[in-house]
Each structure stands twice: as structure tokens, then as C-alpha cells.
Amino acid sequence: MTTINDIARIARVSKATVSKVINNYPGVKEETRRHVLNVIKEYNYWPSSVARSLSTNKSFTIGIFEPVRINNFFFREVFEGIESVLGEEGYDILYLTNKLWENSWLKFSFKEKCINRGVDGVIMMGFGRVNLSEFDGLLNSNIPTVFVDLDLVGSNTSYVTSNNVEGAEMAIRYLAGLGHKKIAMIKGPAGFKLANDRFTGYQKTIHELNLEYNPDWVFSGEYSMETGYDAVNKIIKMRNRPTAIFAEDMIAIGAIRALRENGFSVPEDFSVMGFDNIELGLHYGLTTINQDRNGLGEAASRLLLDIINKKSFSPVILPVELIERDTCRSI
Fold first, then answer.
1. Does the N-terminal peptide bond of residue 267 adopt cis geometry, omega within 30 degrees of 0?
2. Is 308 within 8 Å of 156 (Cβ atoms)?
3. How many domains does the chain fold into?
4. Which tens digit of pLDDT belongs to each residue from 240-272?
5. DSSP annotation of 182
6. Which domain covers residue 103, as residue numbers?
């Protein structure tokens, strides 16, 4: 088995130089760095994670907390972005369960789980503004933390999100441009930043364009097809119906299913506009607002690395774009 001493001997450099190259430390000439890396590759050398941790005081492990299913349509693409960036930097990813528990002698919170597992930092995905005190331990600790879609900041904490207000404005302007004056919105839970931001964009644009606003056309629920399905079953019973529905993709797909099951056609009877551009929406021809899910993961990872490496950092807001397909029509 090849050791760091073997690599140093073959490359004709010191063991300290090999260690600096492995850990990407400065003070090594570029020509020497390339030579050592070529030897490492040729001899398939993989440094001991224990030895690497001892020399750098890092575990090279990043924790991820996610309160929804790990194979969620949206977040699995965020994971791909996280893996692409952190993997290149030599980090492994540890999925941490969201279950916080305590008994008479032991307590595990987000902070305690991070300390117990020895992670260098943590990415928090899919959390809302409910029970924010649960995050106090993290915010007041020195654990580098990045939230996705939750705007919490601290001395070692920041966040990434998409421009949800602008995306909602874009959606409503598009529908209004098609002639729709009565637009319903089925939004996510009130405690979630992205749901609140999209509702803000919806209300703002309805007002600016002087469109009809009816509170009966606004629904709230979980990010699920059931939410859209249930809302549509209420909409079709109304005397004064909206002509278009705006919702997150999973909700929008549930809305389309309910409309079709009740004998309505999309987009002939109702136009439906989504938000997220998840893969499943392609099968429904869903017109939607695209979020760069992979980009969210990449941005979260780079932001976390900046915090870990004590570089300057600030929140990241990614742009969105409209994807036109088949579920909206001009009236």
C-alpha cells in the first residue's frame, strides 16, 4: 500500500511538500505541485482521512439537514450541485436526520448533532420560519452554516435562495399578457420564506396591473399534489372563477389532475402556471418559472467553503427564468 512517504520519495520532495499539495496549502511552486499530483495519480494514492484531519484540524465532512424526503423532486437536484462542488474540494457529505430528541440525560439538537459528528460545516435545506429557536444553537456557535431558502444570518451563517419575488412577478405578468385578469394562487405554507416571497410578488403585480384580486382565490398548503387537487375542487364550485392558477410545480400538477378529472381542459378552460421547473413538470407540459436547482447547491457549497475558510461572505440570490410550454393560453 502506497504511503505519503513513498510519494515523497518518488517525487523527490519532502513529506511536508506532499502534505501541502494534498491540502492545497500555499508555498509550493506550481511546477512542483503538478509533479506531485501526477505522482499521486499514477500511484493511486489516497491520503488517510484520519491523518488528514490531524494535520488540518478538519474532518472534511459536511453535514446536511433536510426535513423532507431525500429523493424530493426539487432537492435531489440541489444535492447534485452540492456534491459537484464539495467533491472537487475533497469533502464527503453526511446526511443527518432531522429528528431532534432528548431525555433526562441526553439532548441532541442541530448544534449537538454537528458537534457529535465532527462536521466542518452544515447545509440546512427545506426549513421554514417555524420554531426558529431550534436554530439558536447553530446561529450562536462557530459552526459554519448555510441555509437554503431561509434568510438567517450570523457571524458564521448565511443563506442562498432564488429571486422568488421576481419569479412571481414574471409569472403574473406573463398570464396578464395572455389576457388573464382573474388569477388564483395556491401557495406553500405561510412559515416558508419562498412562499411568502412569491405571494408578495403575486400581490404586488396584481396591484400594479390593476387585475382583480379576490382573497377567495388564494389558497395555502403543503408542497404537494394533494394541496393543488383540494384547492381546485373548491375553485370549480365558485360562481366567480379565476381563469388561471399560479402555484409551485407539485401543487400545479395536482391542480391539473383535479381539473382533468372534473372534465375541464388545460389550458382551454384554465391556464396553469408553475414555479420550480421540476422534471415531473415536463410530462405535463407545464409552463413554469425555472429555478437553477443545481446552481442553488453549488452556490450553497461555495458559500459554506468561504465561511469555513474564513473568507468574506454574504447571502446569494440566484436569478430565475420563465419556461413556456403548453399549460397556458391566450384568452
1. yes
2. no
3. 3
4. 999 999 999 999 999 999 999 999 999 999 999
5. B
6. 61-162+293-319
